[in-house]
Design goal:
Distance between the termini: 10 Å
Radius of gyration: 22 Å
Shape: globular
Oligomer: single chain
Number of strands: 30
Strand content: 35-45%
Helix content: under 10%
Structural class: mainly beta
Length: about 475
Protein backbone atom coordinates (compact mmCIF):
# COMPACT_ATOMS: atom_id res chain seq x y z
CA UNK A 1 0.00 0.00 0.00
CA UNK A 2 1.37 3.35 -1.04
CA UNK A 3 0.97 6.11 1.51
CA UNK A 4 1.55 9.85 1.27
CA UNK A 5 4.99 10.83 2.56
CA UNK A 6 6.41 14.31 3.02
CA UNK A 7 10.02 14.58 4.17
CA UNK A 8 12.08 11.81 5.66
CA UNK A 9 10.38 10.75 8.90
CA UNK A 10 13.57 10.80 10.91
CA UNK A 11 14.13 14.40 9.93
CA UNK A 12 10.59 15.34 10.88
CA UNK A 13 11.00 13.74 14.27
CA UNK A 14 14.19 15.66 14.97
CA UNK A 15 12.34 18.95 15.02
CA UNK A 16 10.66 18.06 18.29
CA UNK A 17 14.00 17.54 19.98
CA UNK A 18 15.38 20.78 18.61
CA UNK A 19 12.26 22.63 19.77
CA UNK A 20 13.18 21.54 23.27
CA UNK A 21 16.24 23.68 22.78
CA UNK A 22 13.91 26.58 22.04
CA UNK A 23 12.40 26.45 25.52
CA UNK A 24 15.71 26.70 27.29
CA UNK A 25 17.27 28.95 24.67
CA UNK A 26 14.64 31.57 25.55
CA UNK A 27 16.30 31.97 28.94
CA UNK A 28 19.64 32.51 27.25
CA UNK A 29 18.12 35.12 24.95
CA UNK A 30 16.56 36.99 27.86
CA UNK A 31 19.89 37.09 29.68
CA UNK A 32 21.94 37.90 26.62
CA UNK A 33 23.13 41.19 28.11
CA UNK A 34 24.71 39.47 31.09
CA UNK A 35 25.52 35.97 29.84
CA UNK A 36 28.58 35.43 27.71
CA UNK A 37 27.69 32.04 26.27
CA UNK A 38 25.43 29.02 26.51
CA UNK A 39 26.42 25.58 27.71
CA UNK A 40 25.56 22.43 25.77
CA UNK A 41 24.85 19.24 27.68
CA UNK A 42 23.70 15.82 26.57
CA UNK A 43 21.51 13.35 28.44
CA UNK A 44 20.74 9.78 27.47
CA UNK A 45 17.21 8.46 26.98
CA UNK A 46 15.81 5.19 25.80
CA UNK A 47 16.31 4.58 22.09
CA UNK A 48 15.07 6.88 19.33
CA UNK A 49 13.78 10.01 21.13
CA UNK A 50 11.18 11.68 18.91
CA UNK A 51 9.32 14.26 21.01
CA UNK A 52 9.76 16.19 24.25
CA UNK A 53 7.36 17.88 26.67
CA UNK A 54 8.11 20.03 29.71
CA UNK A 55 6.43 19.98 33.12
CA UNK A 56 7.19 20.15 36.84
CA UNK A 57 6.32 16.54 37.66
CA UNK A 58 7.56 16.54 41.27
CA UNK A 59 6.20 20.02 42.02
CA UNK A 60 9.56 21.36 43.25
CA UNK A 61 9.42 24.52 41.14
CA UNK A 62 11.82 23.21 38.47
CA UNK A 63 10.80 21.93 35.07
CA UNK A 64 11.40 18.29 34.18
CA UNK A 65 11.38 16.59 30.79
CA UNK A 66 9.21 13.80 29.36
CA UNK A 67 10.66 12.16 26.24
CA UNK A 68 8.78 10.01 23.74
CA UNK A 69 11.02 7.15 22.59
CA UNK A 70 10.04 5.44 19.37
CA UNK A 71 10.88 1.78 18.90
CA UNK A 72 10.45 0.98 22.60
CA UNK A 73 7.79 0.06 25.15
CA UNK A 74 8.67 2.96 27.43
CA UNK A 75 9.08 6.71 27.78
CA UNK A 76 11.94 8.51 29.51
CA UNK A 77 11.53 11.12 32.24
CA UNK A 78 14.49 13.34 33.13
CA UNK A 79 14.16 15.09 36.49
CA UNK A 80 15.63 18.54 37.05
CA UNK A 81 17.99 18.68 40.05
CA UNK A 82 17.26 22.38 40.58
CA UNK A 83 20.52 23.51 39.01
CA UNK A 84 19.59 22.77 35.43
CA UNK A 85 20.97 19.23 35.49
CA UNK A 86 18.91 16.27 34.28
CA UNK A 87 20.98 13.30 35.37
CA UNK A 88 18.16 11.53 37.21
CA UNK A 89 16.54 9.34 34.57
CA UNK A 90 13.42 7.21 34.92
CA UNK A 91 12.16 4.93 32.13
CA UNK A 92 8.42 4.29 32.50
CA UNK A 93 7.07 1.05 31.00
CA UNK A 94 3.95 1.90 28.97
CA UNK A 95 3.24 -1.34 27.06
CA UNK A 96 -0.15 -3.00 27.23
CA UNK A 97 1.63 -6.05 28.62
CA UNK A 98 3.14 -4.98 31.92
CA UNK A 99 5.42 -8.03 31.93
CA UNK A 100 8.77 -7.30 30.35
CA UNK A 101 8.18 -9.95 27.67
CA UNK A 102 5.74 -7.71 25.80
CA UNK A 103 5.35 -8.40 22.11
CA UNK A 104 6.06 -5.66 19.60
CA UNK A 105 2.36 -5.15 18.88
CA UNK A 106 1.42 -4.70 22.54
CA UNK A 107 1.45 -0.91 22.47
CA UNK A 108 4.85 0.21 21.24
CA UNK A 109 6.35 3.11 19.29
CA UNK A 110 5.69 6.19 21.44
CA UNK A 111 5.94 9.04 18.94
CA UNK A 112 4.28 12.03 20.63
CA UNK A 113 4.08 13.35 24.16
CA UNK A 114 2.30 16.24 25.88
CA UNK A 115 1.94 17.37 29.49
CA UNK A 116 -1.13 18.49 31.43
CA UNK A 117 -3.17 17.83 34.55
CA UNK A 118 -5.83 15.42 33.32
CA UNK A 119 -7.08 13.61 36.43
CA UNK A 120 -7.93 16.36 38.90
CA UNK A 121 -5.25 15.68 41.52
CA UNK A 122 -3.04 18.75 40.79
CA UNK A 123 -0.01 16.62 39.83
CA UNK A 124 1.03 17.09 36.16
CA UNK A 125 0.34 13.99 34.05
CA UNK A 126 1.64 12.87 30.66
CA UNK A 127 -0.31 11.92 27.54
CA UNK A 128 1.32 9.90 24.76
CA UNK A 129 0.51 8.60 21.31
CA UNK A 130 1.65 5.05 20.61
CA UNK A 131 1.61 4.25 16.90
CA UNK A 132 1.78 0.45 17.34
CA UNK A 133 1.49 -1.31 13.95
CA UNK A 134 -1.73 -0.25 12.19
CA UNK A 135 -0.77 -1.51 8.72
CA UNK A 136 0.34 -5.01 9.70
CA UNK A 137 -0.87 -7.93 7.58
CA UNK A 138 -1.08 -11.62 8.35
CA UNK A 139 0.75 -14.38 6.52
CA UNK A 140 -1.84 -14.38 3.75
CA UNK A 141 -1.56 -10.64 3.25
CA UNK A 142 -4.89 -9.78 4.85
CA UNK A 143 -5.03 -6.70 7.11
CA UNK A 144 -4.23 -7.55 10.72
CA UNK A 145 -3.13 -4.18 12.03
CA UNK A 146 -2.84 -3.04 15.62
CA UNK A 147 -4.21 0.53 15.73
CA UNK A 148 -2.56 3.24 17.73
CA UNK A 149 -3.73 4.68 21.01
CA UNK A 150 -3.66 7.85 23.06
CA UNK A 151 -2.81 7.01 26.66
CA UNK A 152 -2.61 9.00 29.88
CA UNK A 153 0.40 8.22 32.06
CA UNK A 154 -0.82 9.23 35.49
CA UNK A 155 1.44 10.91 38.00
CA UNK A 156 1.30 9.22 41.40
CA UNK A 157 1.79 12.54 43.19
CA UNK A 158 4.16 15.43 43.65
CA UNK A 159 6.28 13.68 46.27
CA UNK A 160 6.75 10.39 44.45
CA UNK A 161 8.40 8.98 41.37
CA UNK A 162 5.44 6.67 40.75
CA UNK A 163 3.68 6.55 37.40
CA UNK A 164 0.81 4.34 36.24
CA UNK A 165 -1.07 3.74 33.01
CA UNK A 166 -4.37 5.60 33.03
CA UNK A 167 -7.09 5.73 30.42
CA UNK A 168 -6.40 4.51 26.87
CA UNK A 169 -8.26 5.65 23.78
CA UNK A 170 -7.91 3.86 20.43
CA UNK A 171 -6.96 5.99 17.43
CA UNK A 172 -5.98 4.33 14.17
CA UNK A 173 -3.47 7.01 13.18
CA UNK A 174 -2.73 10.26 15.00
CA UNK A 175 -1.24 13.20 13.16
CA UNK A 176 -0.92 15.53 16.11
CA UNK A 177 -1.68 16.04 19.79
CA UNK A 178 -2.38 19.26 21.66
CA UNK A 179 -3.31 20.23 25.21
CA UNK A 180 -5.51 23.20 26.10
CA UNK A 181 -8.43 24.27 28.26
CA UNK A 182 -11.54 24.47 26.11
CA UNK A 183 -13.82 26.29 28.54
CA UNK A 184 -11.17 27.79 30.84
CA UNK A 185 -12.35 25.78 33.84
CA UNK A 186 -8.79 25.15 34.99
CA UNK A 187 -8.69 21.55 33.75
CA UNK A 188 -6.40 20.58 30.89
CA UNK A 189 -8.11 18.96 27.90
CA UNK A 190 -6.59 16.71 25.22
CA UNK A 191 -7.01 17.31 21.49
CA UNK A 192 -6.30 14.51 19.02
CA UNK A 193 -6.07 15.13 15.27
CA UNK A 194 -6.46 11.72 13.65
CA UNK A 195 -7.10 9.72 10.50
CA UNK A 196 -9.48 6.79 10.63
CA UNK A 197 -8.90 3.27 9.30
CA UNK A 198 -10.59 4.06 5.98
CA UNK A 199 -7.63 6.41 5.30
CA UNK A 200 -10.11 9.12 4.36
CA UNK A 201 -12.11 10.30 7.39
CA UNK A 202 -10.43 13.00 9.48
CA UNK A 203 -11.37 14.18 12.96
CA UNK A 204 -10.47 16.29 15.94
CA UNK A 205 -11.38 14.37 19.10
CA UNK A 206 -11.48 16.40 22.31
CA UNK A 207 -11.21 14.72 25.72
CA UNK A 208 -12.30 17.05 28.52
CA UNK A 209 -10.75 16.72 31.97
CA UNK A 210 -10.97 15.35 34.53
CA UNK A 211 -10.66 12.20 32.42
CA UNK A 212 -12.05 8.95 33.84
CA UNK A 213 -13.10 5.52 32.57
CA UNK A 214 -16.46 7.01 31.54
CA UNK A 215 -14.98 9.86 29.49
CA UNK A 216 -15.96 9.90 25.83
CA UNK A 217 -14.20 12.09 23.33
CA UNK A 218 -16.21 14.72 21.47
CA UNK A 219 -15.75 14.35 17.71
CA UNK A 220 -15.48 17.20 15.25
CA UNK A 221 -15.52 15.66 11.77
CA UNK A 222 -13.25 17.36 9.24
CA UNK A 223 -14.55 15.52 6.19
CA UNK A 224 -12.73 13.57 3.52
CA UNK A 225 -8.97 13.83 3.09
CA UNK A 226 -9.56 13.82 -0.65
CA UNK A 227 -11.04 17.30 -0.33
CA UNK A 228 -8.68 18.82 2.26
CA UNK A 229 -6.05 17.36 4.55
CA UNK A 230 -5.23 18.33 8.14
CA UNK A 231 -2.05 17.17 9.87
CA UNK A 232 -1.17 19.89 12.40
CA UNK A 233 -3.20 21.37 15.26
CA UNK A 234 -2.76 24.14 17.84
CA UNK A 235 -5.22 25.50 20.40
CA UNK A 236 -5.62 29.01 21.76
CA UNK A 237 -8.12 31.83 22.16
CA UNK A 238 -8.92 33.35 18.76
CA UNK A 239 -10.91 36.14 20.37
CA UNK A 240 -14.67 35.94 20.41
CA UNK A 241 -16.53 37.23 17.37
CA UNK A 242 -19.70 36.87 19.43
CA UNK A 243 -19.20 37.78 23.13
CA UNK A 244 -22.01 35.44 24.16
CA UNK A 245 -19.85 32.52 23.04
CA UNK A 246 -17.18 33.26 25.63
CA UNK A 247 -16.93 31.01 28.66
CA UNK A 248 -16.57 33.78 31.24
CA UNK A 249 -18.43 37.01 31.89
CA UNK A 250 -17.70 39.91 29.54
CA UNK A 251 -15.31 41.47 28.84
CA UNK A 252 -13.15 38.47 29.76
CA UNK A 253 -14.88 36.04 27.39
CA UNK A 254 -12.11 33.51 26.92
CA UNK A 255 -11.90 29.93 25.74
CA UNK A 256 -9.57 27.78 23.63
CA UNK A 257 -10.33 27.51 19.92
CA UNK A 258 -8.93 25.02 17.43
CA UNK A 259 -6.36 26.12 14.82
CA UNK A 260 -5.68 23.70 11.94
CA UNK A 261 -3.20 23.79 9.07
CA UNK A 262 -5.20 22.93 5.96
CA UNK A 263 -3.50 21.38 2.91
CA UNK A 264 -4.53 20.10 -0.50
CA UNK A 265 -6.66 17.00 -0.85
CA UNK A 266 -4.95 13.62 -1.04
CA UNK A 267 -5.82 10.00 -1.58
CA UNK A 268 -3.74 8.50 1.23
CA UNK A 269 -4.04 5.01 -0.21
CA UNK A 270 -2.28 5.99 -3.43
CA UNK A 271 -0.47 9.21 -2.55
CA UNK A 272 -2.20 11.03 -5.41
CA UNK A 273 -3.29 14.67 -5.12
CA UNK A 274 -7.07 14.80 -5.51
CA UNK A 275 -7.73 18.50 -4.83
CA UNK A 276 -4.71 20.61 -5.83
CA UNK A 277 -4.03 23.80 -3.95
CA UNK A 278 -1.66 25.68 -1.70
CA UNK A 279 -0.82 24.28 1.72
CA UNK A 280 -0.98 27.66 3.46
CA UNK A 281 -4.42 27.95 5.00
CA UNK A 282 -5.11 28.23 8.72
CA UNK A 283 -8.64 27.15 9.66
CA UNK A 284 -10.03 28.26 13.03
CA UNK A 285 -12.93 26.48 14.73
CA UNK A 286 -14.36 28.38 17.70
CA UNK A 287 -15.51 26.81 20.94
CA UNK A 288 -19.13 27.61 21.80
CA UNK A 289 -19.70 27.97 25.53
CA UNK A 290 -23.46 28.01 25.03
CA UNK A 291 -23.39 24.43 23.76
CA UNK A 292 -20.25 23.64 25.80
CA UNK A 293 -18.54 22.13 22.78
CA UNK A 294 -17.01 22.54 19.36
CA UNK A 295 -19.17 21.95 16.28
CA UNK A 296 -19.79 18.31 15.34
CA UNK A 297 -18.60 18.96 11.79
CA UNK A 298 -16.35 21.44 10.04
CA UNK A 299 -16.65 22.01 6.31
CA UNK A 300 -14.08 24.28 4.69
CA UNK A 301 -15.32 26.81 2.18
CA UNK A 302 -18.94 26.94 3.37
CA UNK A 303 -18.74 30.13 5.47
CA UNK A 304 -19.70 28.03 8.47
CA UNK A 305 -20.67 30.15 11.46
CA UNK A 306 -18.00 30.61 14.15
CA UNK A 307 -15.22 29.40 11.87
CA UNK A 308 -12.53 31.40 10.09
CA UNK A 309 -9.88 30.90 7.44
CA UNK A 310 -6.65 32.79 6.91
CA UNK A 311 -4.57 32.39 3.75
CA UNK A 312 -0.89 33.27 3.86
CA UNK A 313 -0.38 33.29 0.10
CA UNK A 314 2.50 30.83 0.27
CA UNK A 315 2.77 27.79 -1.98
CA UNK A 316 3.16 25.38 0.87
CA UNK A 317 4.27 24.70 4.41
CA UNK A 318 4.72 21.78 6.77
CA UNK A 319 4.19 23.51 10.11
CA UNK A 320 2.65 26.54 11.76
CA UNK A 321 2.73 28.22 15.15
CA UNK A 322 0.50 30.59 17.11
CA UNK A 323 1.13 32.79 20.15
CA UNK A 324 -0.13 35.65 22.26
CA UNK A 325 3.05 37.67 21.83
CA UNK A 326 1.84 41.00 23.20
CA UNK A 327 0.09 39.46 26.21
CA UNK A 328 -3.32 40.71 25.14
CA UNK A 329 -5.18 37.56 26.21
CA UNK A 330 -5.84 36.11 22.75
CA UNK A 331 -3.80 34.79 19.84
CA UNK A 332 -2.24 37.75 18.07
CA UNK A 333 0.44 36.06 15.93
CA UNK A 334 0.31 33.22 13.41
CA UNK A 335 3.33 32.03 11.42
CA UNK A 336 4.23 29.35 8.90
CA UNK A 337 7.42 28.08 7.29
CA UNK A 338 7.49 28.93 3.57
CA UNK A 339 8.38 25.68 1.85
CA UNK A 340 11.99 25.70 0.67
CA UNK A 341 12.37 29.45 0.02
CA UNK A 342 14.39 30.48 3.10
CA UNK A 343 11.59 32.61 4.58
CA UNK A 344 8.82 32.33 7.07
CA UNK A 345 5.51 34.16 6.76
CA UNK A 346 3.65 35.68 9.66
CA UNK A 347 0.64 37.85 10.42
CA UNK A 348 -0.29 39.85 13.50
CA UNK A 349 -3.71 40.86 14.78
CA UNK A 350 -4.39 44.54 15.43
CA UNK A 351 -7.49 43.50 17.39
CA UNK A 352 -9.40 40.32 18.03
CA UNK A 353 -9.87 38.54 14.71
CA UNK A 354 -8.46 41.42 12.62
CA UNK A 355 -5.32 40.16 10.89
CA UNK A 356 -2.77 42.17 8.97
CA UNK A 357 -1.28 41.44 5.57
CA UNK A 358 1.18 38.53 5.75
CA UNK A 359 4.82 39.56 6.02
CA UNK A 360 7.99 37.59 5.44
CA UNK A 361 11.06 37.18 7.64
CA UNK A 362 14.27 35.83 6.12
CA UNK A 363 16.07 33.20 8.22
CA UNK A 364 18.93 32.28 5.92
CA UNK A 365 19.94 29.61 3.40
CA UNK A 366 18.59 26.71 5.43
CA UNK A 367 16.05 23.96 4.97
CA UNK A 368 13.41 23.94 7.69
CA UNK A 369 10.12 22.16 8.35
CA UNK A 370 9.17 23.41 11.82
CA UNK A 371 8.58 26.70 13.57
CA UNK A 372 7.89 28.16 17.00
CA UNK A 373 7.04 31.75 17.88
CA UNK A 374 7.62 33.52 21.20
CA UNK A 375 8.68 36.91 22.50
CA UNK A 376 12.22 35.97 23.48
CA UNK A 377 13.54 39.39 24.47
CA UNK A 378 10.54 41.03 26.11
CA UNK A 379 9.85 43.65 23.44
CA UNK A 380 6.28 42.47 22.67
CA UNK A 381 7.36 41.59 19.13
CA UNK A 382 7.36 38.06 17.69
CA UNK A 383 10.63 36.13 17.52
CA UNK A 384 10.78 32.93 15.52
CA UNK A 385 12.83 29.83 16.16
CA UNK A 386 12.99 27.14 13.51
CA UNK A 387 15.28 24.12 13.63
CA UNK A 388 16.85 23.30 10.28
CA UNK A 389 18.32 20.10 8.96
CA UNK A 390 20.80 21.42 6.42
CA UNK A 391 22.61 24.43 5.05
CA UNK A 392 21.51 25.20 1.50
CA UNK A 393 23.88 26.93 -0.91
CA UNK A 394 22.16 28.25 -4.00
CA UNK A 395 24.38 28.71 -7.02
CA UNK A 396 24.45 28.81 -10.79
CA UNK A 397 28.21 28.22 -10.87
CA UNK A 398 28.99 24.84 -12.41
CA UNK A 399 32.39 24.91 -10.69
CA UNK A 400 30.97 24.09 -7.26
CA UNK A 401 31.37 20.63 -5.82
CA UNK A 402 28.34 19.12 -7.51
CA UNK A 403 27.92 16.40 -10.12
CA UNK A 404 28.88 17.86 -13.52
CA UNK A 405 26.21 19.67 -15.48
CA UNK A 406 25.73 19.15 -19.16
CA UNK A 407 25.52 22.79 -20.16
CA UNK A 408 26.52 26.21 -18.89
CA UNK A 409 22.92 27.21 -19.43
CA UNK A 410 21.62 24.67 -16.95
CA UNK A 411 19.31 26.15 -14.30
CA UNK A 412 20.71 27.08 -10.88
CA UNK A 413 21.47 24.13 -8.66
CA UNK A 414 21.86 23.80 -4.95
CA UNK A 415 23.92 21.72 -2.61
CA UNK A 416 23.32 20.97 1.04
CA UNK A 417 25.73 20.39 3.83
CA UNK A 418 25.35 19.49 7.46
CA UNK A 419 25.38 19.93 10.48
CA UNK A 420 21.97 21.03 11.69
CA UNK A 421 21.53 24.58 12.94
CA UNK A 422 18.93 26.53 14.88
CA UNK A 423 17.83 29.78 13.24
CA UNK A 424 16.53 32.57 15.48
CA UNK A 425 15.01 35.58 13.72
CA UNK A 426 13.95 38.77 15.49
CA UNK A 427 11.25 40.68 13.65
CA UNK A 428 11.89 43.88 15.61
CA UNK A 429 15.54 44.16 14.61
CA UNK A 430 14.76 43.27 11.04
CA UNK A 431 12.06 45.92 10.87
CA UNK A 432 14.27 48.63 12.35
CA UNK A 433 16.99 48.01 9.81
CA UNK A 434 14.53 47.53 6.93
CA UNK A 435 16.71 44.80 5.53
CA UNK A 436 16.87 41.02 5.29
CA UNK A 437 19.18 40.08 8.12
CA UNK A 438 20.83 36.74 8.77
CA UNK A 439 19.71 34.83 11.85
CA UNK A 440 20.66 36.45 15.15
CA UNK A 441 21.85 33.14 16.56
CA UNK A 442 22.86 29.86 14.96
CA UNK A 443 23.54 26.76 16.98
CA UNK A 444 25.23 23.70 15.50
CA UNK A 445 24.52 20.14 16.58
CA UNK A 446 26.90 17.36 15.75
CA UNK A 447 25.58 14.11 14.32
CA UNK A 448 26.29 10.53 15.27
CA UNK A 449 26.41 10.99 19.04
CA UNK A 450 25.94 7.55 20.64
CA UNK A 451 23.43 6.41 23.29
CA UNK A 452 20.50 8.35 21.83
CA UNK A 453 21.19 11.70 23.51
CA UNK A 454 19.07 14.79 23.55
CA UNK A 455 20.68 18.24 23.50
CA UNK A 456 19.79 20.96 25.96
CA UNK A 457 21.03 24.53 26.07
CA UNK A 458 21.12 26.30 29.39
CA UNK A 459 22.47 29.58 30.65
CA UNK A 460 25.86 29.70 32.40
CA UNK A 461 24.15 29.45 35.80
CA UNK A 462 22.63 26.16 34.64
CA UNK A 463 19.00 27.06 35.32
CA UNK A 464 16.25 25.79 33.04
CA UNK A 465 13.55 28.38 32.45
CA UNK A 466 10.74 27.74 34.90
CA UNK A 467 7.04 28.20 34.26
CA UNK A 468 6.70 26.16 31.06
CA UNK A 469 4.16 23.36 31.28
CA UNK A 470 3.40 22.92 27.62
CA UNK A 471 4.89 20.61 25.06
CA UNK A 472 8.20 21.63 23.54
CA UNK A 473 7.16 20.41 20.13
CA UNK A 474 5.58 17.60 18.23
CA UNK A 475 6.46 15.00 15.66
CA UNK A 476 4.45 15.48 12.50
CA UNK A 477 4.60 11.89 11.33
CA UNK A 478 3.13 10.57 8.13
CA UNK A 479 1.76 7.09 7.34
Amino acid sequence: MSMFAQNDLSKAKMRSIFLTVLMVLSTTAALATTASASVARTYTTNRDPTDVAIGDFDCDGHNDLAVATDGTHSITILYNDGNGGFNERLDVWVAGNQNRDADWDEYANVEQVEVGEFTGDSAPDIVIYQKNNPFKTDDSGAPAGEPGNVTIIENGGCNTRDWSIGERFTHFWVWDLAVGDANQDGNDDIYVLDLMADLTSQRVVTYKSPITSTTNGFVTSLGSSQQNTYRSIEVGDYGETNPSFGCNSAPSTTDDDIFLLRSEGLDYSTGQVTNPGNDDNISIIEYDCLSQNYPATYSFGTNQVNTHTFQFGSIGTSDFAIADVAGVGYIDTMAIIDGGVENLSYTMASSQGTWGTPQQAYFGPYISWAIAVEDLNGDSEPDFVNPTIAYQQNTSDSAVALPPVSSSTSPPRSKSRFPTVMAVTSVRYRTLLAAALPPLTSVSFRAGVPQHPIWLWVTPNGILADGETTSAGKANTTP
